[in-house]
Design a protein that fits this description.
By secondary structure, this protein is α+β, with helices and mostly antiparallel strands. It has a four-stranded antiparallel β-sheet with strand order 1-4-2-3. A hairpin with a 5-residue loop joins strand 2 and strand 3. The radius of gyration is 16 Å and the shape is globular.
Length: 109
Amino acid sequence: MIATWSEWKRYPKAARGERLEAPIGPGIYEVRHASSGALFAFGVADNLAHALSSLNAGPKSFISWFGRRAPVTLPDLEYRTCATATREDAKRAADRMVGRREAFMSHVA
């Protein structure tokens, strides 16, 4: 049903000409701060590559209506993906992960 997580990869910066490497299909993604490991984003997507690339879009501003967009500066991030066969499989796996994390945190606190 579910594949394994990919290795952590540095989140690409367009200014450096780097590219995102992610499956074009359903799955789960996780993005964290590289320095602290703190969670930045986690989600289920129909298209992992599109979901990860849209994190870079940032909020739209009034100026963007006229074709100019202010550059978005993201912190130093890392990401990993877990491809699944269907979105439903990804949703079930993500729900299990969130449940495990909540159970762990309730025992730690």
